[in-house]
Amino acid sequence: MNSYTTRFAILALAMSTTFISCKKDDPDPCENVTCLNGGTCSDGNCSCATGYEGSTCGTEVRGKFIGSYNGTLSCPGTNGTVLMTVTSSAAGITSVVFSDGVDTWVGTVSGSSVSIATQTISGGTTISGSGQLSGLLLSLNLNLSGNTCTYTGTKQ
Q1: How far apart are CA 96 and CA 63, in angstroms?
Q2: Could you give the count of Cα atoms lying within 13 Å of 62 in the half-sphere of its Cβ?
Q3: pLDDT at 26 (0 to 100)
Q4: Is 119:127 a contact under the CB 8 Å cutoff?
Q5: E strands in 76-136
């Protein structure tokens, strides 16, 4: 083998070793994943920022609460049909506004639950409580100035 052939063989061997060693590792599982609204990707799945959910964090958690509910409000000595509306609040991505046609108050959504911090509504009445959304059924446990009331309504 002449020196030219030897050099060429060595160069060819070095190049093939280089190409083999440059083999791409496993692809990044987040390479083609876009997480919205401040979500971050880990192992190909989005972890959503507070207030968002869904595979790409594109859905507001409070969105499922927004709407009108036809139901019954039961308080000691009083029962009645109430059309409850729930709307978005400007107070933040997890805030909703409840309205029973007379009063409005604010709740904070987390998953399928809502909490209502103590606040004053008409006539100096205080309201607080919690609730749950299960499918189209909204259930609220309310404290109205010391009286325990419940509301159960179906989303229209």
Answers
A1: 9
A2: 21
A3: 75
A4: yes
A5: 78-88, 95-99, 104-110, 113-120, 126-134
| Cβ-Cβ contacts under 8 Å for 47 (sequence gap 6 or more) | 35, 39, 40, 41
In one-letter notation, the amino acid at residue 139 is: S
Closest Cα partner for 104 from 132, 85, 123? 85
**Mean pLDDT along residues 135-156:** 97
Distance (Å, whole) CA 112 – CA 153: 15
Per-residue pLDDT tens over the stretch 27-82: 899 999 999 999 999 999 999 999 999 999 999 999 999 999 999 999 998 899 99
Residue percentage of the chain with pLDDT more than 70: 84
All domains of the chain, ordered by start, with CATH?
Answer: 3-60 (2.10.25), 65-155 (2.40.128)
With tokens 């325990």, the residue in question is 148
How high is the pLDDT of residue 27?
87
Q: What backbone phi and psi angles, to 5 degrees, belong to 5?
A: -65, -40
pLDDT tier for residue 115 given thresholds of 50, 70 and 90: very high
Q: Phi and psi at residue 27, in whole multiples of 5°?
A: -65, 150
